[in-house]
């Protein structure tokens, strides 16, 4: 099987620590469920991600070097 | 004056029949509307307590008059409960997932807990609770017996729209015959000796006496006995029994479902008890929702809803009479079904499988659902979009003397459309003057409003007197005058530049006039196009329009980040002629070229010749460029364009330089200078180009596309040699010697090679024609400069039209094995498959004409299909994205505050504020320098900071020039 998360076009998906999650939610004034969602079975996710976790995604961007977004892992 | 109220929230749910009764102004019992004297009948469908529609009457419920009385609901007590069609799917689901005996959800506690959790999670994530409901119902349906009371569950069959059956397996009526025949020995099987009653009794454990009774049809074997017999004899003793569930049965069933079980399914039992889906009381809409109209002949004509209600009441009455008279069950059931039909069509008259209720004329009735649904329905037709006042529509025509910010408005429109001004101490005199002019003289007024709210019409007779009364606090509806801001729009409004704000210029005649450079954003031409105009009514609206919507603010398109407004067509031919050969102009000529611009002084002449001092075309053009502009780019006309410090040093100004859709100079001026400077530039380029093209003279006729006979012969030769090569190809193909290209069949290879050869033939014909055109040929000038047309168009006019294609292939359709009856079957030659060797100028042969029409038709069909497809696609996109909004923290969120993007577009930049090309970076250093300088605390710098001139804001063309960065233009 090809590991999709290692593909060069798939940006890094990093699990966030609880404290980091809190600071992100604080920054944007969000509750966890207001975040964009990602399915647990998404091949880009790290293996130890479980529903309820928050993933940080850092994409390359043409205009700003990197663009960061966050997603809530759901079933 | 009513105080505005703030909505705390909206709750959707089912309505309790008791609430209907409480809300009802009256019970309706008679199907009649008015008596012989024309008075509404008490407790009839037009009962005065249901509201008033006739002027002068008083509402018996609220005491208000028609217009202010909102109307009041009544109710009909239904003789028997009926199903509400809107809930049939939910009812089916509930019937299938709950116990027929105890009404509980057929899930055990564990499962219920699981679905309750899922429901909660769906709520948190903003997902559709319906998906959880569906999953729970699917699970509950699997239960054969109720886990709470042990009752076996029957399958529910739903016959659309409103009939439900319980399907049960019951003992077949001919059970004894089935058993007896199964006990007989099988005729085809010699070893099978059958089974005797006593053996059967042993196997099943039923007493022999019973077996005999069963065989005699005297005892019905139920449950265990039946199953034992079936097992022993390997037969099926059951048959399906359909038991119709009457609405009253369903209502009783639903009443048994406990609240806690409903909540597992995501239904709020507090507000929506399932038994309320079966109606026992029918609300009667107020008369204001179904007004009757009086026809010319004095006859009253009732609304469709009233007609439907009459039907319902009649059947309801008959139902009650029949039941009281003790009519047979069959008749009662028929009437019940009829009542159900009428109530169903009252709610929705477009249910599949039900014949729609019709008017006497045969027209289907427009009932409740039809009022809401679809394009003309309440939502899309009356709430999202409606007709507006202060709007005008007429044909558009061009006026190159207007600024691109302006719109010419016919005087008769200007004196019909008004703008409301609030009279204050400072504008009393002005307002009085408008009123004094009256409604007929142009800058006049049509209405005034007194401080007490009374509106007075200004007439030629009362205007003088009225003008003296005007004081602060009044409102005057004055005519549109020059400089007013209005909104201008052309449908289809596909992008934001389809609606822009213009400044009014009142003009004679009957059309709206606009500058030709704003045609691209509106996609307008003047072959009969009409446009809409809206006069803005509040000061805020006018300010917003001026700042955000004015044409000059829309020069850059957010679609591709470059200018969408710029020179078009003749403007481009004009600048091309002016700059391509860089011709010389005398002083008179040069000043004439610039007469419509703000330039009134020429620089030092470029030189002197026999006629005196001269100025070159590029110098004249340079006068329009802002000082300090440095730009270098390659134009597609050929050659580099070099602009240094606002002077065109070298190069030809063509579409790539000043055109709409990304003209480099225009784009740079908007981004480096300002919208106002760009507006001035575009206006002046258009004006200069028109002068230039008139100076040189520019026309085109059929002779401009003719080529000398020598060239014609060369074209013929080229085409003939292509024919020869094709003949060779066909020969090799027919001999079977043609080698196929990789991945293609031999037939495909042949087609490809023929297409290639013919394509080359056309190109070489084009080249030959091209060689014989001089550089000053008008068609060539237009094609090169990008003003209109291409070299391909020229080739087709002068050389050869070329291969016609349908679906990207040579024409292969028509008759059996041939395209037209003029050819032999299986003719593979070029002319038999739509090659047009003539040019448009020489004319097509009839056969070529047919092929050409076939190819042309495909183009027409394509555009027709594309517009409708893309229109629907756009509607869906707009509906999906319309609620997204960029918040002040830079995130993009929807209405439920869910984040869609953490930074707009991932970089938080506007597409029109960034460089449109990798070659031209935005001058970041210049910007940082400016910012640093502004931040300095140094005294000298601070002085500079205070003395800094504010950048120009969005000011009218008509304000005083001291505010403008540039002096003036048009």
Structure description:
The complex is a heterodimer of chains A (about 80) and B (about 950). By secondary structure, chain A is of the alpha+beta class. Chain A has a single domain, classed as RPB5-like RNA polymerase subunit (Eukaryotic RPB6 RNA polymerase subunit). Chain A has one helix at about 20-30, and strands at about 10-15, 35-40, 55-60, 65-75. Chain A has a 4-stranded mixed sheet with strand order 1-3-4-2, with no helix packed on it. The model of chain A has no long low-confidence stretch (mean pLDDT about 90). Chain B is α+β, with helices and mostly antiparallel strands and about 950 residues long. Chain B has 7 domains: about 85-160 and about 245-275, no CATH class; about 175-235, 434 Repressor (Amino-terminal Domain); about 305-375; about 390-550, Barwin-like endoglucanases (Beta Barrel); about 570-695, RNA polymerase Rpb1, domain 3 (Enzyme I, Chain A, domain 2), CATH 1.10.274.100; about 700-860, RNA polymerase Rpb1 funnel domain (Topoisomerase I, Chain A, domain 4), CATH 1.10.132; about 925-965, no CATH class. In chain B, about 40% of the residues lie in helices and about 15% in strands. In chain B, the strands form 10 sheets. A 6-stranded mixed β-barrel of chain B has the order 8-16-9-15-14-17. Chain B has a 4-stranded antiparallel sheet with strand order 10-13-11-12, covered by helices on one side. In chain B, strand 2 (about 155-160) and strand 3 form a beta hairpin. The radius of gyration of chain B is 42 Å and the shape is extended. The chains are: A alpha+beta (about 80), B alpha+beta (about 950).
